[in-house]
Amino acid sequence: MPRDATHDPAILSWVESANAGGTDFPLQNLPFGVFEQGGDARVGIAIGDRVLDLRAARDGGHFDGLDPALAPAVGQRTLNALLALGRPALAALRGRAHRMLSADTPEGTRARRDATLLLPNSDVTMRLPAAVGDYTDFYASVEHAMNVGAMFRPENPLLPNYRHVPIGYHGRASSLVVSGTEVRRPLGQTSAAPAGPPRFGPTERLDYELEVGAFVAGENPLGTSVPIADAESRIAGLVLVNDWSARDIQAWEYQPLGPFLSKSFATTVSPWLVTLEALEPFRVPARVRGADEPAPLPYLSDATDRERGGVDISLEVWIRTPAMRAADAPAERLSRGSFARMYWTLGQMLAHHASNGCNLRPGDLLGSGTVSGVERGERGCLLELTKRGAEPVVLANGERRSFLGDGDEVSIRGWCERTGAARIGFGECRGVLIPAAL
Amino acid sequence: MPRDATHDPAILSWVESANAGGTDFPLQNLPFGVFEQGGDARVGIAIGDRVLDLRAARDGGHFDGLDPALAPAVGQRTLNALLALGRPALAALRGRAHRMLSADTPEGTRARRDATLLLPNSDVTMRLPAAVGDYTDFYASVEHAMNVGAMFRPENPLLPNYRHVPIGYHGRASSLVVSGTEVRRPLGQTSAAPAGPPRFGPTERLDYELEVGAFVAGENPLGTSVPIADAESRIAGLVLVNDWSARDIQAWEYQPLGPFLSKSFATTVSPWLVTLEALEPFRVPARVRGADEPAPLPYLSDATDRERGGVDISLEVWIRTPAMRAADAPAERLSRGSFARMYWTLGQMLAHHASNGCNLRPGDLLGSGTVSGVERGERGCLLELTKRGAEPVVLANGERRSFLGDGDEVSIRGWCERTGAARIGFGECRGVLIPAAL
Q1: Who has the most CB within 10 Å: A44, A54, A269, B180?
Q2: Cβ neighbours of A209 (radius 10 Å)
């Protein structure tokens, strides 16, 4: 029996579609997002195939008795004001939504009679959950770092800092787009020879990267850090991320300051922020360090983080090419992955990020970096799957992909499942490539 | 005789301090900034030792007849709305301010009688000019790249991409601070040996970086580029930037994804945005490529950019240590520099940035990277000046500095001067280091 009623798989919703086995959004999930209808953007919670309009719920008095600061925050056009209130406020709101959407509560009986509360998911357009002040991308899968390192430095695949530092870098916030947004193939400088000369044109090595993203709640003032024990209190929840990458541009530009235009043309984010509260039943121990691996430094070390720092999320990447669409063939899975085996936990990434006094603001987004596993079918990008294009993926219709082609649609899916808990899904992180602008 | 009256050095202001020889803010400058008085932030223009309150000017009818879109924009608490209107709107506003502040115009006669318009600079607190959506830092001084490269790769100081690619990377927007803000010495991982093991503690190699920053005007939609011929139409103006750097943290963390926590603890920005209009008399040819240097690729090549892509800004870095303050000794100059000899122009940096379709938004900040010259006295950071600490700077009082000490104050100054033009100054970009939080 779960301690928290919001995790209890036996509690049903009066929204019938939320009780269907395969839904990403059962009563136990209740992720936050921003939807738009008729040009009016509002904050909502996904439930089955419906969206709960939080502004309408507030106006209908359904949030009476909660922290009064929530009332203006749910009236905003992004989640930032809610995220600024911190995790406890979001948890209280989710708890109230749970009672409102439950089949057998007084709040549920009242909400069921209020016709203003729910909209069909199919009637709304989703937006990015938050206005992202800063987007940081980590590199937290050691398998990804090893696979990529082996291509560029076969004698020395993993750099000496990797097992000590949760490596990350600043990404581009302006080009974050919500799932469903078309992604234009970028132009850029590429060079066949390592010493140049380069040419300028459309990338020929367009790749996806399977990632999980964390949205920041609350704010630490500039000059103050966040102890590892408090780090998760600063993470509101998770989304799926596709950090599109132009590998040929990247190879030519990235020394000495890191990836830049090879990444900044687009990063796709799934629209529903799945809270750490909803993910509570799926927490697992952090990856155990091997005997040959150093212990994390004390500022990255915490007993609770070791015991529960992992999140067991199953991930998949699917592709659908123009030829598949023309033949009415379904999408095909390129890879699977698991978020449970990341080398660094979310808490370690956040604590490291703030360890120099960097202020993390509500709505900031932290990407995990490509999630890869040890098996070939667990490599989270084409660079790894095809060994830099040398071993193309062969699709069921005979098409080959070393890298992505124009018109290809890439979808990331993610979910959590285990016995005794309701399945929690992330929805979809999807993008279709459109040809370069020439 | 200048074609544009706003450049005419013979026109005087009725604000007496604007006519003094040494002022940074004569009638020919008129930079934009955001000031705060009694908690109320407003947009202003610097004139001598005064600030023109643009909201008050609007309310007093002084902007009547200008683009009506300016009226709400000058009522904001940042420059972003003004920057969104684009360079022509800013230029029109500056032109009107010029007539309002001129001694012999009808607009000047009227403004002089309006007691609501001017505040003493000493009565206001300056803020960052804009809410910066994304901060990008370039690496546009080849002398800096050579000096730093020689320390890390003596056999191969300049990487093969440098003369083709305006190298840049994403910086941290949240930790941008306005001149005068205290900067806390960051903690971080450092390692004496290249292979580790690291320790965690206060940086022992805290450095400044002398840079010039450009604020973006207007917006290109995601997926569209900005031709080099149009690139300067997207730059509103320039500021001074100190991109504080922790060299020991940087050396350990920066492979393979670039600098991260070694930079993200603070970046100081001067408060007054000096418009490209004001800098018009100081435009110089772009750096000429040598016979052994490749021509820029066509997307970075433009006749006007070659003829006028440079800006002849004189720069200086000054230090004042706690011992100097205790002895009431003045600050001491560490280095001089010139922005005229940068390898890449501002237009090339912006065109490159958008060449992959990356959307640049109003208020985005582009840093030039450290401005260094060929002489020892022109090296724009201590890493270069002291050769990684091996040759400490000796100050007049006998103190030595390999890197910065707690309590050290670093000030960057910048100005443009030439015969037949009024001196245009940038004000100050200043920060005092405070001890690490332990």
Answers
A1: A44
A2: 26
